[in-house]
Amino acid sequence: MTSADLDAGTSQVAPTSERQLESPPASAAGESTSRQGLALGLALRVIAAGPLFVLACIWIVFALLSPYFFTSTNLTNILTQSSPVALLALGSLVVVVVGSLDISLGSTAGLCTVATAVFFRDNPSLGWVVVPLSLAVGMTVGLINAFVIVTLRVGNAFIVTLGMLYVVQSISYVESNGTQVPGVPNFLQALADNHLLGVPGPVVLVLIAAGALAFLLNRVVWGRWILAIGGSEDAAGKVGIPVRKVLFSVYVVTGLFAAVTGLLVAGSNDAGATDNGTSVLLAIAAVVIGGASLAGGRGSVWSTVVGAVILGSITNGLTLLSVSPNWTPFAVGGVLVAAVGIDALRNTIESRLRVRQAQLQMEGS
To answer: Which of 37, 137, 203, 363 has its CA 20 to 30 A from that of 154?
Structure first.
């Protein structure tokens, strides 16, 4: 073999060796991509669990400040006291997911308590009728809202439901003569006061309602439709989703949750009473703290329940610390504003993480 041949062979081998040194093996690159993908997935899960993290922080702070806070009895009280707000928040979540609001929910729940108590007072032998009666009242208010907003297209949902709030309040005042109407069936009191396998009745009711709503939103096409409508109503209509029918059903379902809330409140108070409209503000606050977007398209059932528990924990903790009740709205408002700010930051971070995750998936494929 001549020296020229050796030189030629060397010139052919050298570039290959350089390329091998410059680029890592395919298996190493794949492992790196996989690790990054796992890290991004974990980060997205941590972001989704934000409300739980906030609740844990609140519990830790109050547990350090009061020895009575982190006891089984007190935590049970928090969950029980948070149940009406949680139920109303679940109803609010349904309408918030489509990018709308229903301000009349609290007043509707109050009307249901009044209807329950008045009917039982006048017909004590027909106590079982109060359940279908309350559900019918709540759904009727939802039907009227849906008809005006969706069918007649009169104004926006905020204005229409604000007007309905005053209408429903007025009916409640007329029926109750402006006072509490004492007396509800025993089974409603049992629901509010008794336990099932050690779990308070109101908590059981919230778990059942939340489980049913989570199934509807995540496993039924109706749930996917309302998420799509919340994301973009025009786009949803273009792909064949019956937007108006779905929106109509949303307000009816929301009224149904208000009626269930009214039954629980009537049992807890053993009376019917008009709602002043503030309960729905707490419900919407719970939805926002739970990470739902008021613009629509995003919301979690269980995070909404956690949001209601956060509000209940703040009220309970301040009471244990003997803080004046006048400061409770201040604390709730502060948490709500902080939740909105954190939500905006979370949206930015989550969007960037999802973009990077999509890039890694494309590289992996």
So the answer is: 137
Residue 216 neighbours by CB under 8 Å, 6+ apart:
222, 223
pTM for this entry: 0.83
Identify whether the C-beta of residue 202 lies closer than 8 Å to the C-beta of residue 192. Answer: yes
Tell me which residues of the chain have a pLDDT lower than 70: 1-49, 343-344, 347, 350-351, 353-358, 360-361, 363-365
* Structure confidence at residue 19 (pLDDT): 44
Rounded to an integer, what distance in angstroms lies between the CA atom of residue 134 and that of residue 255?
10
Q: For residue 190, what are its two tokens?
A: 């049992």
How many other C-beta atoms are found inside a 10 Å radius of the C-beta of residue 269?
A: 17
Which residue shows structure tokens 């059942």?
A: 208
Sequence-separated (6 or more) residues with CB below 8 Å from residue 186: 127
> E-strand spans in the chain?
181-182, 195-196, 199-200, 271-272
Widest pairwise Cα distance in the chain:
117
Domains along the sequence of the chain with CATH: 84-321+332-343 (1.10.3470)
The token pair that represents 271 in the structure block: 């009376």
The dihedrals phi and psi of 155, each to the nearest 5 degrees, come to 65, -170
> Cα-atom radius of gyration of the chain, to the nearest Å?
27
